[in-house]
Amino acid sequence: MLGIKQTIYRLAEDSRVTAALLKAAENGKHVSVLFEVKARFDEERNIREGARLEKAGCFVIYGVGKYKTHTKMLMIIRKEGEKVTRYVHIGSGNYNEQTSRLYTDLSMLTTNDTYGHDVSEFFNVITGHSQPDDYEYLITAPRDMRQQLIHLVREEAKNAKKGLPSGIVMKMNSLEDRELIDEFYKASKAGVPIRFIVRGICCLRPGRPGLSENIEVKSIVGEYLEHARLFYFHHGGEAKLYAGSADAMVRSFDRRIEALFLIVNPQLRREAINILQLNLLDTQNSYTMREDGAYICQRPAPGEPAINIHRDFYRRPDEAQLTNATPEGLLALLHEQTARRLQLAAAEAAAVEAPAAPALEEEADDFGQGTALLELAVENEAAITATVVDEE
Asked: Residue 123 to residues 1, 2, 20, 133, 346: CA-CA distances in angstroms?
């Protein structure tokens, strides 16, 4: 091994990651580490661990100016025979043994030369050795992540207006950026089916007539804390699928160093699409956002099997499942769920418009039925309105 480069945001107590980096440095390997010293609640630990590594001879950077380094990235350079190989690890999860047992995250380990070049350039930028380059597989912040995502959303809207297949599915911690939300509204009005799986803050309102009829939002809160980020754009059938550390927030786009990576390997793409399909199908840990911002608990319809992503994910998908984990399969699921939602809405509207039974006169209501039914309706509505998800 020739060297290691890594960004660190949160470490576990008695971190094995730090121990491994110390061992590498003691064995004469070049080790460069960027510690984020503004990681909330972990400032002291990061400064302490950074000082240990620096004392052992590592090249340590304590943050990058006014930006918070939130990206999760590692590169190991090895000489294998006559060839130098770059091993790149990039994802959404911290290098933290404790949270890795409790959080759901996605990451990729690869020796692909394009990822190696992009990540190498990215490390040169954040360590101050070069200006940003054009990346092939990375979208980075604060450089141009917002504009790149807006471009991808607009492409979906253009395809929808042309009558071409379109669709957006995004899984994240929070959705808050006003500019991007405005683009989602425009895409919805153009006819793009859009689904969001947002664990925490969501400032967008789905299902609003004339604005967001084609948008649905759900939150998954269960055995594990949902921490992964996946951004899917149908792109005319040649889907673009990104994963990484960033949420759709002002702080992620403007005040943090973040990275999303394009998933190009066909097998990994199927795995990622399968994860999105499980998220959309989950009926055990899911809460659906209503147009007014309240959440209602989602349960399987009568006769439908219960799907629990935190259980079913561990059951390796058979070949038939992965065969359906395609852009076409995901788009078919979006249309199927849209049809079901419209069917339920029509049934509810018909129930509201149905002629009411003749009201019992107060004097003739020996059992108090009129008053009791009214009170029950009020209680049910209050219960629905009060159903919200606690934000992490």
From this structure: 18, 16, 20, 11, 54
Q: How many domains does the chain have?
A: 2
69-97 pLDDT, tens per residue?
A: 999 999 999 999 999 999 999 999 999 99
Q: Where are the beta strands (DSSP E) in 336-388?
A: none
Looking at the structure, do residues 109 and 166 belong to the same domain, yes or no?
Answer: no
Q: Summarize the confidence of residues 189-208 as an average pLDDT.
A: 97
CATH number of the domain that 126 lies in?
3.30.870.10
Question: Is 89 a residue of the active site?
Answer: no
* Catalytic residue (one of 70, 227, 234, 235): 70
Q: How many CA atoms lie within 13 A of 175 on its CB side?
A: 26
Same domain, residue pair 148 and 132: no
DSSP 8-state code for residue 354? S
CA-nearest of 99, 308, 128 to 222 is 308
- Is pTM beyond 0.85? Reply is yes
Task: Using the predicted structure, report yes or no on whether residue 390 has a pLDDT greater than 60.
Answer: no
| Buried-exposed string 277-303: b where 16+ CB fall within 10 A, e elsewhere | bbbbbbbbbbbbbeeeeebbeeeeeee
Report pLDDT for 357: 57
Residues 168 and 69 in one domain: no
271 vs 340: CA distance, rounded Å: 26
On whether both 193 and 336 belong to a single domain, the answer is: yes
Domain limits at 177?
140-344
The answer to whether residues 195 and 234 belong to one domain is yes
Q: What's the average model confidence in pLDDT over 332-336?
A: 94
Please report, for residues 164, 178, 182, 391, the alpha-carbon distance to residue 212 in angstroms, rounded to integers and kept in the order given: 19, 15, 10, 23
Of all residues in the chain, what percent carry a pLDDT higher than 70? 88
